[in-house]
Amino acid sequence: MPTSNPTTVTRAAVRARDLTKTYGSGDTRVVALDHVDVELAEGELTAIMGPSGSGKSTLMHCAAGLDDVTSGQVWVGDTDLTTLDDTRLTLLRREQVGFVFQAFNLLPTLTAEANITLPLRLAGRTPDREWFEHVVRVLGLTDRLGHKPTELSGGQQQRVAVARALVMRPRVIFADEPTGALDSVTGHELLDFLRRCVRELGQTVVMVTHDPGAATYADRVLLLADGRMAGELRHPTADDVLAALRGLGA
Ligand SMILES: Nc1ncnc2c1ncn2[C@@H]1O[C@H](COP(=O)(O)OP(=O)(O)OP(=O)(O)O)[C@@H](O)[C@H]1O
């Protein structure tokens, strides 16, 4: 709890106000997000959970500036994404947002190391060698850096994608089912590492997950149902999460 340290002020890394997102029109109109208000605190690991179709991915995509909003506002730090043109939005994503998606989006012709440092180089930044080595060591990738993605297992590719997000030290990392493609041991290792990044480095992480076990790593679990906020849990157990999800009909 930030209140244990009086000099720490909890700031929102990401904020949404009155966020509505609809897809389609007429008979096929779907309200994916329905007037959502939410703040995601800096230096916390937040899990977004809820039944299938409740709007989790849509919330993450709107909050990350990957999808435009129908109405309402979204801030990353002090920047209102809804006021940005495409160029500025691309720059903001590049500089302030890290992504770990299920499709790892690694470039097949590049080595693991080149994939990890690509966003930094695109942003014109020089990799901090010490931090780079720390990240790849903790993720167990040190002896895999010269390999191309096809020469890596699914779990290793996922860890490369996580390293690529972490080396940027972005304001916030959005992770979509980060353990989805991993066996349970590797999944827990990855979550342990994300947890350490949050605790020791103040990294802000937001992940969408269906896994109550993964949610126990979170400081806070936000529950969505039918495109609306349906409650939250702090430092829940897997049973707490299961009970809350059952209450939402998941
Ligand atoms: N591109 C799209 N076009 C039309 N409808 C969409 C689109 N993307 C999402 N939706 C709809 O918006 C609603 C919310 O979808 P979303 O993917 O955010 O849910 P979710 O909670 O992430 O689901 P899941 O757990 O199944 O991945 C759903 O009804 C979905 O069908």
TrEMBL record:
One of its GO terms (molecular function) is ATP binding. Gene3D superfamilies: P-loop containing nucleotide triphosphate hydrolases. InterPro entries: AAA+_ATPase, ABC_transporter-like_ATP-bd, ABC_transporter-like_CS, ABC_transpr_LolD-like, MacB-like_ATP-bd, P-loop_NTPase. SUPFAM superfamilies: P-loop containing nucleoside triphosphate hydrolases (SSF52540). The keyword Signal does not apply. It comes from the Bacteria. Keywords: ATP-binding, Nucleotide-binding, Transport. Residues 14-245 form the ABC transporter domain. PROSITE patterns: ABC_TRANSPORTER_1, ABC_TRANSPORTER_2. GO terms for cellular component: membrane protein complex; plasma membrane. This is ATP-binding cassette domain-containing protein. It comes from Arsenicicoccus cauae. The lineage of its organism: Bacteria, Bacillati, Actinomycetota, Actinomycetes, Micrococcales.
